[in-house]
Amino acid sequence: MTIPNVTTTLRSTARAMALSLAAALATLVANPAQAAPPKKAPAAPAGRNWNQTVVRTARDSFLLGNPNAPVKLVEYISYTCPHCAHFTQEADAQLRLGFIAPGKGSIEVRNFVRDPIDLTVALLTHCVPPAQFWQTHLMFLTRQDDWIGLEMTASPAQRQRWITGPLASRTRAIASDFKFYDMMASRGVSRTAADRCLADEGLANRLAAGTKDAAEKDYVEGTPAFMINGLPLAGTASWAALKPQLEARIN
């Protein structure tokens, strides 16, 4: 089966979001004072660090931490989004130390794919076992400044290779041009293994469908975007805005 044009799908999603989600987002702001008090987090076993627990979910997302934690944070990310990279640099250590490690909360990372480069990185982060996902995910976001510049300086011929032809030829061209093969090699993933992942049409289709669902059902119109215990949050694209939302639920 040939994958639908992911770029076309994403552009259609963006147009639909602009028309249908603005009114919903205006009223959909989480209010900690109105939220039901969460159950107290179960005590972690002696010596247990929940940062070591990562599972791949049925929706092709990755969940870090205690799966039964009373506070469940969902983060929608795009790897080409500078705000996502900035948020990760600010928040990752604090989230993992005070929120994840003691079992108070979990973080589920979901892809919100917005362009062919983002799709390529998403396919590569799914190319490692769950236990290696988080460090691979962090690698692309914390080093975004090292590779994102080509998005603006690429030649017309490079850009054409990124958007035409079968999925495998498009994603492999992007991986080569952006030096993603070298980055994945540093995570122990060979070029042959990376190529198999970059040709995964089934996963690419599911990620595109998940992006559409996020826009239509979870009111996501940009990244990073968050939900806590299934409730979408508006106006929390920064760590400064998200932190009090979490603290209100875990203290």
Automatic annotation (TrEMBL):
Alphabetically ordered keywords of this record: Isomerase, Signal
* UniProt cross-references to SUPFAM superfamilies, sorted A to Z: Thioredoxin-like (SSF52833)
The source's domain of life comes to Bacteria
- The residues the entry assigns to the signal sequence are 1-35
Q: Domain named Thioredoxin-like fold: which ranges?
A: 60-247
**Which Pfam family is one of this chain's hits?**
Thioredoxin_4
Q: Which molecular-function annotations from GO does this UniProt entry contain?
A: isomerase activity
What this protein is called in its record is Protein-disulfide isomerase
